[in-house]
Design brief:
heterodimer; A: 200 residues; mainly alpha; two-stranded antiparallel sheet; 2 strands; B: 218 residues; Four Helix Bundle (Hemerythrin (Met), subunit A); 0% strand
Chain lengths: 200, 218
C-alpha cells in the first residue's frame, strides 16, 4: 500500500501519512461483503460452531476497522499497544468468569464443595493402599479434614424453649408501643431523634 | 460560512504540534480502552447467559428482527466510512482552501447516526409494547424456555449503552462539524476530527460484535 508523506507545511506537522482514499473504499467494500457473509452464514445451522464462526467474521471486520479506519496500522505503535493491553485485561475477565461457568459440572452433588476429581483421586489412593497392604483407606468425603457426608449430617437440636422468658418482645406488644429497635415517635421528642437519623 | 483558515498555535506545554497531536491521540486511545472494559462487563454477562441457557438464548434471539439489525449495521459501517473520508479531507485541506468536503462527510456521518437511532426507536417501541423491558416491566410470555428475561434484559442494556454512545458521538461530531464550518481544520491541525473519528469508529466496532451476538444466534 503506497502512502504519500504529507509534509507540505512548515508548521511542525511532518511525517503524518495520509492514507489514500482508495484504501478506505476497499475496506468499506470488504466490511459490506463480510456483513453479507455473517448474515448468510447465520441462516445455516452449524450447531456448536454457530457462535465461533460469527465471532470470527466479526473479529475480521473489527480488525479492518481498527487497523485501517482507526489507523493502528500506520500509527505510533504505542496506541496499538494500549489497545491490546485493554483487550488482554478484557480476556482475563472472560477467562475467569468462564472457568467458573464451565467447571460447575465437576462439583460433587453429594459432598458439596469437594469436586468429583477429588473423589476420583481418593479412590485411586484407596486402591493403591489396598495393593500395598497398608490398611489405611481414606474415608469417602474426608480428604485431610474428616467431614461427615451430607446424608450423615444431623441438624443440631433446637434450643430449649422457655415460654415465659422470650418471644413476647418479637411481635407488637399489647400496649401498642413500637417494637424494639424502632424509635417511638410519640415518646421521643423530634429534636432528640434527629441527630441519630442524621448520623446514619 | 467559511471564515478562512485559523492558524493554530500548539499549547505551550507541548514541544511541537506533532507532540500535541500524538498526546491527544494517546489520550483518546486510553479512554477507548476504558470504554472497551465498560462494555466488556456486559459482554461477559452475555457469555455467562449464553453458556448457562443456550437453548433459551437461541429461542429468544429469534424475537429480534435481524433485517433491522443488518440495516443498522449498514448505517454504522457507512458512517464509519464517511467519517474516515472526512479525516482524509481534513488532512488534504491546504490552508486557505474551502473544506466543504470535510463538512459534507461530517454531516453525512451525523445523518447516518440519526438513521441508526430512528431504526432503534422503532425496534425499541415494538419490544416495549411486547413487554420485553427488564425487571418488573418484563411481561413477555412468548418464549417457552425459562429465564428469557435475561436475554432481553441484556439486549436492552447492551443496545441501550451503545445507543447512548451513538447520541454522545452525534453531539461530539456536531461540535466538530460547527468548527469545520468555521474553517478551523486544515492539514496542519485536525486533531478534533481525528480524535472524534476514533470515538466514532469504536461505536461502530462495538456494534460489529453486538449485531451477530444479539440478532444472529437464533
Amino acid at each position: 500500500m503506497s502512502l504519500e508523506n504529507h509534509s507540505a507545511h512548515d508548521d511542525g506537522h511532518h511525517g503524518h501519512f495520509v492514507v489514500p482514499a482508495a484504501a478506505y473504499v476497499a475496506v468499506f467494500i470488504a466490511l459490506l461483503v463480510l456483513t453479507v457473509v455473517t448474515v448468510a452464514v447465520a441462516q445455516v445451522d452449524l450447531g456448536p460452531a454457530n457462535l465461533p464462526v460469527a465471532m470470527l467474521v466479526a473479529t475480521m471486520k473489527a480488525s479492518l476497522v481498527a487497523l485501517v479506519f482507526m489507523q493502528l496500522k500506520y500509527d505510533d505503535k504505542l496506541n496499538g499497544l494500549v489497545f491490546i493491553f485493554g483487550l488482554i485485561f478484557l480476556s482475563l475477565f472472560f477467562l475467569f468468569t468462564l472457568l467458573d461457568v464451565f467447571s460447575r459440572e465437576y462439583i460433587d452433588p453429594k459432598y458439596g464443595n469437594r469436586t468429583i476429581a477429588t473423589e476420583q483421586l481418593r479412590a485411586m489412593q484407596n486402591k493403591a493402599a489396598d495393593k500395598s497392604g497398608v490398611n489405611t483407606p481414606v474415608k469417602p468425603g474426608g480428604y485431610t479434614i474428616d467431614m461427615p457426608a451430607k446424608d450423615e449430617w444431623q441438624p443440631p437440636p433446637p434450643p430449649p424453649t422457655t415460654p415465659d422468658a422470650g418471644l413476647t418482645d418479637v411481635g407488637v406488644p399489647a400496649d401498642g408501643a413500637a417494637p424494639d429497635g424502632a424509635p417511638d415517635p410519640t415518646s421521643a421528642a423530634p429534636g432528640s431523634a434527629a441527630p441519630e437519623s442524621a448520623a446514619r | 460560512m467559511n471564515t478562512g483558515i485559523v492558524r493554530r498555535q500548539h499549547a505551550h506545554h507541548f514541544a511541537s504540534a506533532d507532540q500535541e497531536f500524538s498526546a491527544s491521540k494517546l489520550g483518546m486511545w486510553l479512554f477507548l480502552v476504558t470504554e472497551v472494559l465498560l462494555f466488556g462487563g456486559l459482554f461477559v454477562g452475555y457469555a455467562y447467559g449464553q453458556s448457562v441457557y443456550p437453548e433459551m438464548w437461541k429461542e429468544a434471539s429469534r424475537y429480534l428482527d435481524w433485517k433491522l439489525g443488518a440495516l443498522n449495521t449498514l448505517f454504522l459501517i457507512t458512517s464509519s466510512f464517511t467519517m474516515v473520508m472526512g479525516v482524509n479531507a481534513a488532512q488534504r485541506n491546504k490552508a486557505g482552501e474551502m473544506n466543504g468536503k470535510l463538512v459534507g462527510y461530517l454531516a453525512a456521518t451525523i445523518a447516518l447516526a440519526g438513521c441508526f437511532l430512528v431504526v432503534k426507536y422503532f425496534e425499541y417501541s415494538h419490544k416495549i409494547h411486547d413487554g420485553m423491558l427488564p425487571g418488573i416491566y418484563y411481561t413477555f410470555q412468548g418464549v417457552q424456555s425459562a429465564n428469557a428475561h435475561y436475554f432481553f434484559g441484556l439486549y436492552f442494556l447492551m443496545t441501550g449503552l451503545h445507543g447512548f454512545h451513538v447520541v454522545i458521538g452525534m453531539i461530539l461530531l456536531g461540535w466538530v462539524l460547527v468548527r469545520a464550518m468555521k474553517g478551523h481544520f486544515y492539514s496542519g491541525y485536525y486533531t478534533p476530527v481525528e480524535v472524534g473519528g476514533l470515538y466514532w469508529h469504536l461505536v461502530d466496532l462495538i456494534w460489529i460484535y453486538l449485531f451477530p451476538l444479539l440478532y444472529l444466534v437464533g
